[in-house]
Design a protein that fits this description.
Strand order of the largest sheet: 1-5-4-2-3
GO molecular function: thiosulfate-cyanide sulfurtransferase activity
Pfam families: Rhodanese (PF00581)
CATH class of the largest domain: Alpha Beta
Distance between the termini: 35 Å
Number of strands: 10
CATH superfamily of the largest domain: Rhodanese-like domain
Keywords: Repeat, Transferase
Radius of gyration: 18 Å
Oligomer: single chain
Structural class: alpha/beta
Protein name: Sulfurtransferase
Order of helices and strands: EHEHEHEHEHEHEHEHEHEH
Largest sheet: 5 strands, parallel
Helix content: 25-40%
């Protein structure tokens, strides 16, 4: 199984050898619409395009949570606007600790839309700069494509399935948010009953890069069925990415996550360990 990660030095060599690789800058700042695009316009990897977390990788907040999935039609239009084709390898990156927005892009492109070759730049923008990778203002204008993905709707679950299913639910938020001791974003603190806390930070080493596949394979929880969730369905994709790095069967994404779960006050809430 091919690793979903690519290191900066390997990316440099691939870019030098071929112009077919398409780069996507996924930088974002929570509660700051447009901040990621501004960062991309200031300086990014040469030839990169910007994938916006709020505009491209999510629909408007609502009953589906803070970052619900866009419709298949809207995401297809985004991919066509950006010129995405299944024949071109894709590399996604950001500068959020642990590659959180990039993991969301990876999941949507590879797991949901079914693109055959998507990589996450391990270590993100900092790793690129560490190998003296060039940065230029983002200004690329892509040629549109006509790709129509075959979406895999089995890759994600909704709240009803989480409520009634027997899958082990993995919560990618911090232990303090899981226990309900603090909640800086959502109006209700706690976690989905029966869930297990598996913070996304546990997937990384001290340098902020993913742990070796062999180590992740030992550390990641195993169960017959797994569901990954977080606050709004972004960090949860980091957990799924870790399973892919480890070469293990992938959890399904609860796209609404905690922010979607608490939209219905009838759903149960647990606190503590």
């Amino acid at each position: 199984m091919r690793s979903p990660l690519i290191d900066a030095a390997t990316l440099q060599r691939r870019l030098a050898a071929s112009s077919a690789v398409q780069l996507f800058d996924c930088r974002a700042r929570l509660n700051q619409p447009g901040a990621g695009a501004a960062l991309w316009q200031q300086a990014s990897l040469p030839g990169s395009l910007h994938l916006d977390l709020d505009r491209d990788l999510a629909a408007a907040p609502g009953q589906g949570g803070r970052h619900p999935l866009p419709s298949r039609e809207d995401f297809t239009a985004t991919l066509q606007r950006l010129g995405v084709l299944p024949s071109r390898p894709l590399v996604v990156f950001d500068d959020m600790g642990g590659q959180l927005a990039a993991a969301r892009a990876w999941w949507m492109l590879a797991c949901w839309a079914g693109h055959p070759e998507v990589y996450v730049l391990d270590g993100g923008l900092a790793a690129w700069q560490a190998v003296d990778g060039a940065l230029v203002p983002g200004a690329a204008a892509p040629e549109a494509s006509d790709w129509r993905p075959a979406f895999d709707e089995a890759a994600w679950v909704d709240a009803d399935e989480v409520f009634s299913g027997r899958a082990l639910k993995l919560d990618a938020r911090s232990p303090a948010r899981f226990r309900g001791e603090q909640e800086p974003i959502d109006p209700v603190a706690g976690h989905i009953p029966g869930a297990r806390c598996r913070p996304s930070a546990a997937n990384l080493d001290e340098s902020g890069r993913f742990k070796p596949a062999e180590q992740l394979a030992v550390e990641l929880p195993r169960a017959e069925a797994l569901v990954s969730y977080c606050g709004s369905g972004v960090t949860a994709c980091h957990t799924i990415l870790a399973y892919a790095v480890a070469g293990l069967p992938l959890p399904r994404l609860y796209a609404g996550s905690w922010s979607g779960w608490i939209e219905d006050p009838a759903r149960p809430v647990a606190r503590g360990d």
